[in-house]
Amino acid sequence: MHLKRWGLVIVLFVCLVSCSSAPPAGPEAAKALIEDSAKAMGGWANIDAVKAQEILTGGGDWEPMQSLEPKSDPLQVDSFAQTILVDLDKRRMRLTHVGKANLSPTRSGEVR
To answer: Cα separation of 78 and 72, whole Å?
Structure first.
């Protein structure tokens, strides 16, 4: 009895999926997507009113499958922070990147 129910569910699912249409594609679809995105942000006037943008990022790099013990966490080999400041009025940009290698000893003189 359960097999018949699952079979019916699968058949209904396949019918439902086959009835859906493909999403629009091409240049006109791209333009419509951009217009919708601008509208969601308050319109082109609000976007054009932006004078500067600051983007802050940061993170770290780990060595996968490299650890001191079989089931311990992987070693973090470095970390970084980055700031991008874009001045749209004066058409200039500043990029600041700070990286730090983590090469501290871990056990009796071992370097990770």
So the answer is: 18
Q: Residue 76: name the closest of 64, 88, 86 by CA.
A: 64
- The H or E element containing residue 45 is helix 44-48
Determine which helix (DSSP H) or strand (DSSP E) holds 35, and give its type and residue range.
Answer: helix 27-40
Condensed to tens digits (0 to 9), the pLDDT of residues 67-91 reads 777 777 777 788 899 999 999 999 9
The residue whose two tokens read 């871990």 is 106
Q: Where are the domains of the chain?
A: 1-49, 51-112
Name the residue among 81, 77, 75, 76 with its Cα closest to residue 99.
Answer: 81
Q: List the one residue out of 24, 3, 6, 23 whose CA is nearest residue 14.
A: 6
Task: Say what the pTM is.
Answer: 0.51
